[in-house]
């Protein structure tokens, strides 16, 4: 990845706030293929009818940029990436995001807290519950719904803070990110 100038980060964040989305994709288990638990992936995407508006996203962060057709046969371009690259994208733009800042914080939190387990064994229920609750919280934020203040996945030691009701500074600390007060942000 190329180092981004601050002005480019600010432009990309503004564009992404309007034309982008952050979500956690969940696919179903497929026992016939040896997959016994659903898979959860952090994804970010942006769409537009102007190719050159999305090209910087692929240039700076990688991912895919594909063309489809609208009903009017006009081209529609979609950029997307997932997992660690999506997290790096969100970390780079986080200080500049306004509309999707909470979803970005949760996406970063999700990717950093992701626990890997090996093989095709079923994933422990606590891990599945944790991933599902974060997925639902981002989905609710995307729809403008209020979210709970704590994700409780049963074991008493797995209380994961969400952002609603917390201070910005505590959220950044929980995510391991440097906090920049709003007045100091460019």
Structural overview:
The structure is a single chain. 40% of the residues lie in helices and 20% in strands. With 186 residues, it is α+β, with helices and mostly antiparallel strands. The strands form two sheets. A four-stranded antiparallel sheet has the order 1-2-4-3. A two-stranded antiparallel ribbon has the order 5-6. Helix 3 crosses helix 4, helix 4 runs antiparallel to helix 5 and helix 4 runs parallel beside helix 6.
Query: N- to C-terminal separation?
Result: 22 Å
CATH homology-level superfamily: Homing endonucleases
Mean pLDDT: 80
Specify Rg, calculated over alpha carbons.
18 Å
Main features:
Endonuclease I-creI, globular, alpha+beta
Short synopsis of the structure:
The chain is of the alpha+beta class and 186 residues long. Helix content is 40%, strand content 20%. It is built from six helices and six strands.
How would the blueprint of this fold be written?
Blueprint: H1 6-19, E1 20-27, E2 39-48, H2 51-61, E3 64-69, E4 75-82, H3 83-93, H4 101-113, H5 125-142, E5 150-152, E6 159-161, H6 168-175
Antiparallel strand pairs: 1-2, 2-4, 3-4, 5-6
Helix pairs in contact: 3-4, 4-5, 4-6
């Amino acid at each position: 990845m190329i180092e981004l100038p601050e002005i480019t980060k600010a432009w990309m964040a503004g564009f992404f706030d309007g034309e982008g989305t952050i979500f956690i994709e969940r696919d179903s288990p497929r026992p016939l293929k040896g997959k016994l638990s659903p898979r959860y992936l952090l994804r970010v995407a942006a769409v537009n009818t102007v190719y050159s508006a999305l090209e910087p996203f692929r240039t700076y962060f990688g991912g895919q940029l594909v063309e489809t057709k609208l009903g009017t046969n006009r081209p529609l371009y979609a950029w997307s990436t997932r997992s660690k690259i999506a997290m790096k994208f969100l970390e780079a733009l986080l200080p500049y995001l306004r509309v999707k800042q909470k979803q970005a914080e949760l996406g970063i939190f999700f990717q950093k807290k992701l626990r890997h387990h090996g093989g095709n064994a079923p994933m422990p229920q606590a891990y599945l519950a944790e991933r599902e609750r974060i997925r639902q919280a981002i989905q609710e934020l995307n729809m403008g719904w209020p979210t709970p203040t704590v994700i409780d996945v049963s074991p008493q030691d797995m209380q994961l803070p969400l952002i609603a009701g917390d201070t910005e500074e505590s959220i950044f600390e929980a995510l391991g990110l440097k906090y920049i007060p709003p007045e100091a942000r460019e």
